[in-house]
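Record type: monomer structure entry
Structure origin: computed from sequence
Chain ID: A
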Amino acid sequence: MKKIKIGNRFVGEGEPCFVIAEAGSNHNRDFNQALKLIDVAVEARADAVKFQTYSAEKLYSRKAPKKEGEESVWDLIKRIEMPREWHKGLADYCAKKGIIFLSTPFDLQAVDELEEVDMLAYKIASFEITHLPLLEYVAKTGKPIILSTGMANLSDIETALEVINKRGNGKVILLHCVINYPPGYEDLNLRAMETMRQAFQLPVGFSDHTPGITSDVAAVALGASVIEKHFSLDRKLPGPDHPFALEPGELKAMVQAIRDTEKALGSPIKRQTNAEEEKFQLGRRGLVAACPILKGTIITRKMIEVKRPGYGIPTKLMDVVIGREAKKDIEEDEILTWEMV
């Protein structure tokens, strides 16, 4: 299984999970709020913080249908789109704070603009997996591509990878995703990550829209190489992505839970651990004299008791001890050792 390098971090099997703190549109078109989101991601020890670069004019038709009395999708997108002149300021601030800056492009112009700030990798949103011209254009940059697969089947993913690979870019990470805001746990199907991993032999992660951190920890336990999670300064802020996002303390707790989970997964070898060594001796049982045994006595089963601690002869070797001669006087309740028989 290949590993993909993003900045100074390798992503893939055997590497720490790459955590993307998804700021999205939760800046509310306030640059200072965007900087605060970066600070929160840094404090949480995420590997990257990600925004989204789109414009209503390039994303939706003004004629898109809408429900009577509701805001049109075009108007919503126009209201929350990130000013593109922010790119350099956000990228510079991320560099200063030591976190990777990412932004998802939704059009070809966005790719050009993000190339100007030398973005290290490109995240492709689930909705864009069939936007083949965009995939081809991003692939030509030669940068790693993190491809979300919400709503997609294996055929959709295969088609997208063919377009990317034709441009000579094999640096792709797939993200399992379920498009709903938020989805129910019963809809997540996290085991699909293994299907994708086996089918495409690429690193696979999880882009999550559920509340809380349960599904993210579960995904890491199932081998997710990347976790992407929305976060906000406050879920009560106005905007479509705040309600299901993590708040600062929760984002920090998620990253810590991911790191704890990675430690807990450890090795597939079943063995006594270093942490168990003391309890192994105190808690295991060994052979103890059930009564006084005089020197020269042939030891019988009635003369042996099985007790803790297990410092002496192991219980499993009882039959080896029975029938042997005591080499010294042994007191009742004394732990039997090989020097005694």
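Annotation 1: The first helix runs from residue 31 to 44.
Annotation 2: Residues 237 and 255 are 23 Å apart (CA to CA).
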